[in-house]
Amino acid sequence: MNPIFSLTPSDRGPVLRIREQELSSALTISLEITGLKPLVSRGELVAKGQQLCVDPANKLPSVHSSVSGKVLDLKKDFILIEEEGDRLAEPLKFNNSDSVSMLSDLRDAGIDVHGFKQGCTLIINAVPKEFGIDGHRFLIEEFNHIMSEGLDYLKKAISPIASAIAVPEGMAWTLPGCTGHEIDPVYPAGLPPMVVKSVTGKEMPPDVCVIDAATLYRIGRTVHGKQPVTEIMVKVGSTLFQTPVGTTVGLLTSKAGFSLSDGDRVLLGGPLSGRAVYSLNHGISASTQAVTVIHGGDDPVAKDSPCVGCGECVLKCPARLMPNMISRHAEFGFFENTQNYFIASCFECGLCAYWCTAQRPLLQYIRLAKKELLDKPILEDLRK
Amino acid sequence: MKPISGSPVLTVSSSPHIHCGRTIKGTSLQILLALLPAAGFAVWHSDLLALRVLALSCIVAVIAEAGCLKLMKREIESDNYTALLCGLMFGFLMPPSSPWWLIAVGSSLSIIIGRMVFGGLGGEPLCAPLVGWAICKVSWPELMNFDMSMLTSELTYPLSQLQNFGPETLDEYSLKSLLLGFQLGGSGAAQSGAILLGGVYLISRKIIRIDIPLAFVGGVSIAAALFYTISPVDYALPVYHILCGSTLFGAFFLATDSSSSPVGHFPMIAYGLSAGILVIIIRVYGAYPDGVPFAILLANLMTPLFEKIRPKPFGGITNVHLQR
Ligand code: SF4
Ligand code: SF4
To answer: Can you give the residue range of the structural domain that contains A42?
Structure first.
């Protein structure tokens, strides 16, 4: 099998703590705040764990400072903080009375609770999303009790009818109170829709919540320490780091031994589903699990070429779609037509574009069409 | 954020950020490579006659494609070798003794009518080399008749022998001689053994999938076996149908043509089977001794129908997931 599709976690190596590394200057963190409202201003001193930004619409999780420091710069999308002093924010208060406030407390503590529903089936996803994104192995094996604490809180908040943990085949990972499910460790089996299918046997059922193991750990850590999580585990290449949220990818990649030059790509996440950053000053977010470096020129990039009809994308699509037809319609702006090819079933694994003989940007076309369909709903049943 | 000076300029892209490395050019090169042994055999059997046919056909196809692209004000893309491949496959179907103008006309029509009028590479509803072949076959039947055009050769055309004199004439062909290409037929298409070798190579390199060739050969065998069991004196053994004429060339190279064949395992198998069965029906009942080209053209026409056979999409036939 192609090794990039293997989801078997690697053996545990040492954990590199960024704070124990030699740094030439004070640590500067950069937090992405797109869509959020800042609560601090430039030059202000902030404490570790202090809330910096909130979502006025109460949807996105808020962002906290992971260091005690001074706000160096405040842009539309970023906050830059230089480490200084050792102030610590007031502990968080958790209101355990009702489910809605339990979830909003979590959101205020920086956890994404989007999609958590009452009375659902809760699935803890401990399968690496992509090859090498296995930093949570350390958390599950060392901090099982913290995860249990997070699970207890979550169970109280959403009272699930059942809880399960999905683990890659051969890993003896368990969580008290969860039934275990082994998953064949081949990409895309770690993506939520595939995990849901393996655990429940149903495809895209409405009443299932999937939360990944690293997020569960963060919930546990938050309710345990009454502080937002400021340090996370990030896999950079094959090195596992423990590092403050907001550490720049430039620092992480250089500590992991990468030397970058023009044309290289740095991704938050893995090569098949990650997100490229445009600057080495981009900081990792609390939910980042991996940073991947792709050196320029390694692989051909997508091309604007016509589909030759080889059918590889159709045979490789785990959602049994016809990415060739969807992309042909999307390419020429017939976004509504893509619904005849069930575009909504695509869960963006990226395999179609990975295998396309014509190197067409298939998933990119699909995403474009999805976005267009959401922004301008055409069919009645798509309107909220 | 401004990149701090001295930091590299990163490339951004949206996922997936990697590609398997398979390209149109690489695929055509592999298919060309797989056709080489058969081309070599063809040249050997025809005392260099085939070399002239194949070379001319390739050159004309490439020029025709470049000319059309120029007229359409599009970028010339001869460097993906698909036109060259199309020309070579057309040449494979032609008698080695064909006059130069026939090759030039057929090869250019393969590209123009078979491909460019449908918008170029990827648009072909029919296997392009077969389009040129069919035009020639219908327009100049005597030149396309292997027995008549190859009178000087000591070799004979087993399929017309079968059609005219019955299956017992096939006994004079040993399987080994058929595999080695001691038969008349399309210059390269008749080189069964070399074609088989090329086809197996393509499957082992995963350039083509096994579904269509297997179903095609399966269809031929099943239909031929059926006729043979009905009356062994009137009909030939399946193995002759597979090794004579262009059956294997059709199975591995023509029927698997990417844009005119269906996608998906089940449609591919249905398509291959239908084409294979049609081959035998045409050979048994039709006027043409070798049914392969027309059988594949007919199956190509059914491709849109076969493609209607689709599994249910993930999560069912609905688009409600779009809002979640
Ligand atoms: S990204 Fe492509 S392969 Fe993956 S589910 Fe969507 S259409 Fe299918
Ligand atoms: S893999 Fe690419 S070239 Fe092949 S059918 Fe799909 S879109 Fe077309």
So the answer is: 25-89
Residues in chain A, how many? 384
Give the distance from residue B119's alpha carbon to the nearest chain A alpha carbon, in angstroms: 10
Q: Name the residue in chain B with its Cα closest to that of A2.
A: B20
Instruction: Using an 8 Å CB-CB cutoff, list chain B residues near A296.
Output: 11
Residue B24 CA: nearest ligand 2 atom is 3
Under DSSP, the state recorded for A208 is E
ipTM of the shown complex: 0.90
Q: What is the pLDDT along chain A (384 residues), one digit of tens a residue?
A: 788 899 999 888 888 888 888 777 888 899 998 889 999 999 999 999 999 999 988 889 999 999 999 999 998 889 999 998 888 998 888 877 788 888 889 999 999 988 888 888 999 999 999 998 988 898 899 999 999 999 999 998 988 999 999 999 988 898 988 999 999 999 999 999 999 999 999 998 888 999 999 999 999 999 999 999 999 999 998 899 999 999 999 999 999 999 888 888 899 999 998 999 988 989 999 989 999 999 886 555 788 888 999 999 999 999 999 999 999 999 888 888 998 999 999 999 999 999 999 999 999 999 989 888 887 655 444 334
Those residues whose C-beta lies under 8 Å from the C-beta of residue B261, and which sit 6 or more positions away, are A309, A311, B212, B255, B268, B271, B300, B303
Cβ contact B222:B168 at 8 Å: no
Whether residue A206 sits in one domain with residue A101 = yes
State the CATH number of the domain containing residue A202.
3.40.50.11540
A102 and A195 housed in the same domain: yes
Pocket lining: A311 vs ligand 2, CB cutoff 6 Å: yes
pTM of the predicted model as reported, rounded to 2 decimal places: 0.90
Domain match, A141 and A80 both:
no
Neighbours of B105 (CB within 10 A): 17
Q: Does B6 touch chain A (CB under 8 A)?
A: no
> What's the CA gap between A130 and A188, in Å, rounded?
7
**Any CB–CB contact under 8 A between B119 and chain A?**
yes
Q: What is the DSSP letter of A337?
A: G
Query: What CATH number has the domain spanning B24-306?
Result: 1.10.3430
